[in-house]
Amino acid sequence: MALYTGQAGDLRDAPALAAAAEEAGFDSFWVSEHHGIPDGCLPAPLVLLAALAGATSRIRLGTGLLLAPLHHPLRIAEDAAVVDRLSGGRLVLGLGLGYAEHEYRAFGVPAAGRGDRLESLLGMLRQAWTGEPFSAPGLGLHDVRVTPTPAGRIPVWLGGYAPRAVDRAGRLADGHLVGRGEPGVIDDATTHLGAVRDPADPGFTRAVIVTVVLDEPGGGAASARSAFAAQQRMYESIQDGRNVYSGLTGTGTGGGGEDGDGAGGGLLLGSVDEYVQVAGSADEVVRGIDAVFERLSGWARVHVILRVLFPEPDPAVQLARIRTLGRDVLPRLAHRRAPVTPR
């Protein structure tokens, strides 16, 4: 079981949140990447994970997702290796394409062909992390070397919703991460992944981010809903004119990459509760998360990531929520948690 934060807030609070997640019993802590968005989203996930490595000792640290085409491929390889070293082999590198055109313009990176560049990057990373000289002409790299090497084998997961993106993850990556854990989205990914990847393969992870609002003392439900609604309105405003869920939810909202098309905009579903996959008391949250695991029960390795931290002003509310989940929810889902594979 994992914990996800999609915003930066006061970065000085992040080590305490990650340490609290570790103490509460979460298996991993995830951060995402966005640029130039007025909700405090994090622009440098690997930099923050390097800091969190020193504040934690057990919990895995993940990028969900790093917007790979915006970065030089050698920089990704080197920074990931350093974070993996600092954390003692705890990094999970999630990569994606993103959907915000303004981010590509800001970095002066062409959006066309970014899916192909991501595919080339995956092979290059494995070469780079051997520590031996290598070349990747398609990425403009010739006789280069990455040192130091990672502490272990860094799992690389890919995100995305559209068939091409899901197929890419199934063929080339160690896992697929879907950012909205609704039944239709999960089932559609299952269909596409099952065509290219054996569900019994223990080397492949099905990962799903599930938005959770806990209506319990210490859960800060009103604060969570208000902050999530503001964030969702902002996301939909920059996604206007695109259906980045490829029509799966019928809303035109979310984030899935270059392979989708269509239209979107506004808070299309009205109430923010329509965007929350699991909500209610601790009992209801346990049942809701357990249903997600059950939906993925045909896969050998499943990782459910709880999105419970939103851009709220009071870190004490977030800390209390993490502790409540650790006390009242996680122990009741222990039978669903996959063992951590030593690296």
Q: What can you see in these coordinates?
A:
The chain is of the alpha/beta class and 343 residues long. The chain has a single domain (2-336), classed as TIM Barrel (Alpha-Beta Barrel). Helices cover 37% and strands 17% of the residues. It has helices at residues 14-24, 45-55, 73-87, 101-107, 114-128, 163-172, 183-194, 221-238, 282-295, 315-328; strands at residues 2-5, 28-31, 60-67, 91-96, 134-136, 141-144, 156-159, 175-178, 205-214, 278-280, 302-309. The strands form two sheets. Strands 1-2-3-4-7-8-9-11 form an eight-stranded parallel β-barrel, surrounded by eight helices. Strands 5-6 form a two-stranded antiparallel sheet. Helix 1 (14-24) packs across helix 2.
Q: What characteristics describe this protein?
A:
TIM Barrel; globular; disordered C terminus; 10 helices; 343 residues; two-stranded antiparallel sheet
